[in-house]
Amino acid sequence: MRVPFRKMHGLGNDFVVLDARRRDLPLTPARAAAIADRRTGVGCDQLILLEPGGEGAEVFMRIRNPDGSEAGACGNATRCVASLLAAETGRERVVVRTIAGDLPAEALPGGLFRVDMGRPRTGWREIPLAAPMDTLHLPLSRGLLADPAACSMGNPHATFFVRDLDAVPVETLGPSLEHDPLFPERANIGIAQVLDPAHLRLLVWERGAGLTRACGSGACAALVNAHRRGLAGRAATVTLPGGPLDIEWREADGHVLMTGPVATAFTGELDLDAFPA
């Protein structure tokens, strides 16, 4: 079965996008993992499958991590998909449906897209965590990292705050933290340095994907957790290795808005039968 695909990215957080709105695609977890492999497949941080959206949404976006597991939300991928839908429909505002809920998005001048990521969830059951605890101060530490705050942006995030981001061996500590028993569904691990109340630096070890150049939901979680800790305002620029995202935790309705660019790297065609089912 030969199918077209797009290789897209948001600040270097890259995706293989397949369109299953008009025909079913046999995309098993094993096949998704094989396509995501950077040596023997196309290579990506997440594989995105577009499915019919149903009433109230232009599309349903299914997200597969490189290990084949399913993710609930991805901010950078949502912007990429929103750009495709805007080009298809001619509309500036679209709705992308995910297993974590509906994400309204809109096109802005300069090739930017803004996504309403919804309200963060800060209760221990909502994140989820393994037991009742203060989600602003988790009893978790590894090496230089300690005392993270946690929230859910459609997927679980724990954010550590450090004085020197460059001193943290993220690739060494990330795997253990992702799989800590505190997180029954694993967690995305953010390490943030607050430069001032309106500017954060951030690295994210993504569950099922590892260290990525950018993580949209992780940037949202970092701003939310920094504000909850009194370290930042309700709006800030979050700079990741791939570049900056503008994040706002809106006071009026509690929704988090994320603004950033999108890009298409290339297009091609896949033979799905060439990848193990």
List the quaternary state of the chains.
single chain
> How many separate domains make up the residues?
2
Radius of gyration: 18 Å
Q: For the record, what CATH class of the largest domain applies?
A: Alpha Beta
Number of helices: 4
- CATH architecture group name of the largest domain: Roll
Into which percentage range does the β-strand content fall? 35-45%
- Tell me about the biggest sheet? 17 strands, mixed
Distance between the termini: 12 Å
Tally of DSSP β-strands: 19
Overall, the morphology is globular
* Helical amount: 10-25%
- Which ranges are low-confidence, i.e. pLDDT below 50, for 5 or more consecutive residues? none
**N-to-C SSE string, H for helix and E for strand:** EEHEEEHEEEEEEEHEEEHEEEE
Q: Average the pLDDT over all residues and give the rounded result.
A: 96
> Could you say which structural class the secondary elements and strand pairing correspond to?
alpha+beta
Fill in the CATH topology of the largest domain: Diaminopimelate Epimerase, Chain A, domain 1
What is the CATH superfamily of the largest domain? Answer: Diaminopimelate Epimerase, Chain A, domain 1
